[in-house]
Automatic annotation (TrEMBL):
CDD domains recorded: Glyco_transf_WecG_TagA (cd06533)
Uppermost EC category: transferase
Name assigned to this protein: N-acetylglucosaminyldiphosphoundecaprenol N-acetyl-beta-D-mannosaminyltransferase
Alphabetical keyword list: Cell wall biogenesis/degradation, Glycosyltransferase, Teichoic acid biosynthesis, Transferase
Involved pathway(s): Cell wall biogenesis; teichoic acid biosynthesis
GO BP of this protein: cell wall organization; teichoic acid biosynthetic process
UniProt cross-references to NCBIfam families, sorted A to Z: wecG_tagA_cpsF (TIGR00696)
């Protein structure tokens, strides 16, 4: 049932080598078979965080799948001479799963983002994915986690999307994945993007692999986060030497 995928280890984090189409096929099959699935969408920032927090690294490596959400991961795999097939953006998996859920009357639960964003999300999802059953929505600034977990349990969803940013979302999932036989996926700022509160880079920028630059220009506070990249690349280069 579990489809083993080739893995590429980058600084101790094991990435699954897949494509968007293949990955969506694997997930839909698992949902149809009522298998719990924990998906991590990781970028260099998450890899570096995991390197400094061993418990978190352990949590990620125990997820069912970790996909390369970020061109930095693709570059890292290339530098290690173990290239990955393609970048699989968490946002793309998210929208494909919503479409499939709508076509197959599945139930989804959404946790994350600011209250106004999650309210918009409810409207947009009802309009654009009319066949999808919304099992519940919860903004990402709650204090009573037990209550959220209980709401998920009662909704008995097929898919739970958690968009509270990393590492919060992965920690939430690992504590609560036992509440439903569902796909649980951490997807960062995806609710902001789906509702138009944050714009994704135009296709051209994406094709040039410059989405990260576009986002940093639009949201200068993100430049700080890019500062991690040189250290990430240096550590990957070190791994390459050690692998030899
Ligand atoms: N967020 C949340 N709860 C928190 C902190 C953040 O729901 O306690 C939300 C925030 O509103 C945003 C998302 O988490 O929608 C994080 O987005 P970001 O762009 O930082 O995530 P990335 O995709 O870069 O991991």
């Amino acid at each position: 049932m579990t489809e083993p995928m080739n893995q590429v280890s980058i600084l101790g984090i094991n990435f699954d080598d897949t494509t968007l189409d293949n990955f969506v096929r694997v997930l839909t099959k698992r949902i149809d078979n009522h298998l719990r699935t924990f998906v991590v969408t990781a970028n260099p920032e998450i890899v570096m965080y995991a390197n400094e927090h061993k418990k978190f690294a352990h949590l990620i490596n125990n997820a069912d799948y970790t996909i390369p959400d970020g061109i930095g991961i693709i570059l890292g795999a290339k530098l290690l001479a173990t290239p990955l097939s393609e970048r699989v953006a968490g946002y793309d998996v998210f929208t494909r799963m919503l479409k499939w859920g709508s076509d197959n009357q599945k139930t989804a639960f959404f946790v994350g983002a600011k209250p106004n964003v999650i309210a918009d999300l409810r409207k947009i999802v009802s309009r654009e994915y009319p066949g999808l059953i919304i099992g519940g929505t919860q903004d990402g600034y709650f204090t009573d986690e037990q209550a959220v977990a209980e709401a998920i349990r009662q909704a008995d969803p097929d898919m739970v999307f958690v968009a509270t940013g990393s590492p919060k979302q992965e920690e939430f999932i690992s504590r609560n994945i036992n509440k439903a036989e569902a796909l649980f996926m951490g997807i960062g700022g995806s609710f902001d993007v789906l509702t138009g509160n944050v714009k994704r880079a135009p296709k051209k920028w994406q094709d040039l692999k410059l989405e990260w630059l576009y986002r940093a220009i639009k949201e200068p506070s993100r430049f700080k986060r890019l500062a991690i990249l040189p250290k990430y690349l240096a550590d990957v280069a070190k791994q390459r030497i050690n692998n030899k």
